[in-house]
Amino acid sequence: MMEKGLVDILHRCFRCGWCKLPTNYHDINCPAYLRYRFESFSAGGRMWLIKAWLDGEIKTSERLAQVLFSCATCMNCVEACAIPHIKDHLVDIFIAARQDMVETGIIPPSVRDYFKAMNTNGNPYKMPRADRKKWAEGLNIPAYTGQEYLLYIGDEASYDDLGIKMSRSIAHLLNEAGISFGALFEDEQGDGNEVHALGELGLFAELAHQNISDWNRRGIRKIITISPHAYHAIKNEYVKHGSTFDVYHYTQVIGTAILQLPKRREYPSRVTYHDPCYLGRWNRVYLQPRSILNSIKGLTLVEMDRSMQNSLCCGGGGGNSFTDILGTGPDLAGRSRVREALSTGAKIIAVACPQCYRMLDDAVKAENAQEQIRVMEITEIMNLALP
Amino acid sequence: MLDQEIIGKLKTILGSDYVSDAAEELFIYSRDQGVQDPHMPDCVVMPGSAPEVQEIIRLAMQKKIPVVPMGGGLLLSGLTVPLKGGIVLDMKRMNRIIEINERSHYAVVEAGTSQGMLDAYLRKHHPGLKHSLPDAPPSATIAGNIAIHGSGHLSQSEGGFHSEMVTGLEVVLPTGELVKFGSCSTVPAWFSRAPLPDLVGLFLGWNGTTGVITKVGIKLYPRPSLHDVMVFMTEDIDLAPMIISRIINTEVAEDINYALAPKPDYLNGFQMTVINVTANSEAEIKMKKQIIRDALHDFYETKEAGFMPVPPNMKAGFLEAPQKALSKFADVRKGGGFEYVGAIMPIEKIPEACRAGMEITARNRITYSLGARIIGRGHCAMFFFAYPFNRVDREEVERVKKALEDTNKTALQLGGIPWKAEVQGQQLILKQMEPETYRVMKKIRDVLDPAGIMNPGNWEVG
User: Fold this and answer.
1) In chain A, what are the domain boundaries?
2) Tens digit of pLDDT for each residue in B37-92?
3) Whose CA is closest to B403, among B454, B339, B351?
């Protein structure tokens, strides 16, 4: 059941629509509303429907599930909402409503499959745990044995081919920078951020407790994450389950260690940076990724109209990169983002998140724009500029 | 309830993604943020182009299905709530900015283009130009606002209601024809409604009963680089018309708003006249502010009124456009709602309107914010009687409904006319309107909409 504090503020949404746009109003900035366009899929519409649902005015239905689970938890609504006392809780309410729907047992099949895979396989790719070490094949990455940092890889960067490219590149650069770190490989398990965002808070608590206990047992104090989603879960959600780790996204560590890296050669390129929601709006990390890119000689960093706190989500947040509730079509957030990136004249979309990497790479193909632009993770660009 | 054959035809026209008769969409589109009773549509559709609108209208005409066009859906007075069911036509997918004419100062946009998106587009691509922004949230649409005779931050200095800033329209008639009005009907440019017979007015103020606007040409204005605000305070309500007239007559104020509210406590009993000034240099803005000070000199010399020092955070709020303050007002009762009667009235009626508003709210035991935006160079005011309410307090909602009814009557008695009035307010207006005027309205509507499908229930004698 949704906690009373959240139920008590549901009716205070005026449904004024600020939540649909970024704070600079450039274009629709809510992935679900952008895709579906019905008022019911805006944050305000969702608030009113949740209230109607809890009041018994509308019934549990597939459509309501689609409305609830299409939210990308990107926090644009929180950023843009005009009403101070409710804005901070909008996404909490959406997640709590999902939790209520999970408890009713009526959830979209793809969400059900995601939970099933997480329960059965410990990852959404239904891959064996032993394959978690494959990302590091051929690299000299040490197992964690008390180094300064645990490099937490996560599901996407362990199993997805683009994610693997990313984890390999980041690990290489951390090595180059002389950072003391180790990884857990097949001893690692998912962080559960998407389990949480999709409303299965019981399973999330279990994952969090297992991870906290395992990491404490190993004496881990400092953690570097590949994914901003893992960064958020471990930094902000695990603390509610008793964790005390110092958590860093890799861009924060590399951003600080730039001077330790070998002198870079020029890499002339026109790049635009896509802020991941879980790094940007959720955690206010905007500058370090940009400083890394700006440290590359010859690289011109151009901003999209929607950047930093106004960034458009890739559409993969809130579990959507696995559940695909947002479906297909030109109004998908990822495709809109690629068109926006193209309008800057950039040849590269730089990313710092394995989910954004996958979503935007797919979107470039869907837009048939492979000749004009490509998606690269920040350290991949850095590594090209290393001698 | 529409039969599935019609839903199927709508899906053939628009694609299944943009047609819904699901309970969730019917619920949301059956109501707006105000206190009017909900009425369920039979389905909601979202056209992506004018030809699609034509096909929908032809189908609706053939089957005699009511059609309610909707923009931002922020009217509060239920004008896009489908009183007789039927199809709600959500226009917001049609949001392309088609043309900006830098030299002739106009923009052509599709009907679903939001105020915020046009403003952002102009700031980026044509930073020297702007359009008049209403106080509505940025998600309000250009077409919706002009269709209801909206007003905004350039209404005082640049020519009145937003409907007066329209340079041309493209409209799907209730019989399905796509028609252009204004210069765009004759030459490939949207610069003016003159010198042709002015048919644009057939679609402004009619609450969507005469057709579906699909494109709008609107005037743009220079965007000076500097913007400042002055706040003139007085305790004497009767001074307001004189103060406002003096400011108007300086011809240097961009926007003039007048307000009073019981909260915050330290401002209770005071009225604020908020004067926006823009300029292209510090010297110019200084000069304009001095002209305004000089115009009001005798008021503050005699201590009847005076300028309030505006702290930076308050100033930032005044300078914000669009303003979040209006949406925040919906949270005054911690209940997600407010209602208002915006009555268009002569400026000299402001003191009476203030007193009446305070009396009505006291009688109905509700709180208020009262005020006015000056329209044109003092040609009239849009006086607002705004009442916040708690959506879940049914008793308070009923009191606000009663206050709205009282306010509509009072506005008419004062010599004003309620703006974008809900159906009951429309009927009060029609009751007072000269019968011949209403007969002409009806004749025009019968000619344009022989099947009577467009937003039925609106502008009809009860």
Assistant:
1) 4-107, 121-256, 261-385
2) 999 999 999 999 999 999 999 999 999 999 999 999 999 999 999 999 999 999 99
3) B339
Report how far residue A14's alpha carbon sits from residue A254's, in angstroms, rounded to the nearest whole number: 43
Token digits for B164?
């007066």
Closest by CA to B334, choosing from B294, B383, B393, is B393
| Local structure of residue B254 (DSSP, 8 states) | S
Half-sphere exposure (Cβ direction) of A383: Cα atoms closer than 13 Å: 17
Q: What are phi and psi of A188, to 5 degrees?
A: -85, 155
Determine how many CB atoms are found less than 10 A away from the CB of residue B282: 10
Closest CA to B129 of B163, B110, B104: B104
Q: Measured between alpha carbons, how far is residue A235 from residues A111, A222, B396 in Å?
A: 25, 11, 44
B25 CB within 8 Å of a chain A CB:
yes
Using the Cβ of B336 and the Cβ atoms of chain A, whether some distance falls under 8 Å is answered with: yes
Burial class (CB in 10 A: 0-12, 13-18, 19+), A308: middle
Instruction: Give the domains, in start order, of chain B with CATH numbers.
Output: 4-90 (3.30.43.10), 97-222 (3.30.465.10), 226-323 (3.30.70.3450), 326-421 (3.30.300.330)
Element (H, E) at B329: helix B325-329
pTM: 0.97
Location of structure tokens 């005015």? A57
**CATH topology agreement for domains A121-256 and A261-385:** yes
CA gap A213, A201 in Å, rounded: 18
Burial annotation B248-262 (CB, 10 A radius, 16+ → b, else e): bebebbbbbbbbbbe
- The pLDDT tens digits of the residues spanning B125-173 come to 999 999 999 999 999 999 999 999 999 999 999 989 999 999 999 999 9
Q: Does B92 contact A at CB distance below 8 Å? A: yes
Structure tokens at B415: 């010599």
Q: Is A378 on the interface with B (CB under 8 A)?
A: no
Give the containing element (helix H, strand E) for B361. helix B350-363
CATH of domain A261-385: 3.40.50
- A87: nearest CA in chain B? B328
Give the integer Cα–Cα distance in Å for A63 and A108.
Answer: 9
Residues of chain A contacting residue B125, judged by C-beta atoms under 8 Å apart: none
For residues A10 and A50, what is the distance between their CA atoms, to the nearest angstrom?
8
- Cβ contact B366:B341 at 8 Å: no
- CATH code of the domain made up of A121-256: 3.40.50
ipTM passes above 0.85: yes
Residues 325-354 of A with CB under 8 A from B: 329
**DSSP string of A173-238, one letter each residue:** HHHHTT--EEB-GGG-----HHHHHTT-HHHHHHHHHHHHHHHHHTT--EEEESSHHHHHIIIIIG
Residues of A in contact with B23 (CB under 8 A): 58-59, 61, 63
Report the number of secondary-structure helices (H) and strands (E) in chain B.
14, 19
Residues of chain B with C-beta less than 8 angstroms from the C-beta of A39: 25, 28-29, 73, 90
User: Nearest Cα to B146, choosing from B131, B161, B167?
Assistant: B161
Instruction: State both tokens at A7.
Output: 């139920």
Does B22 contact A at CB distance below 8 Å?
yes
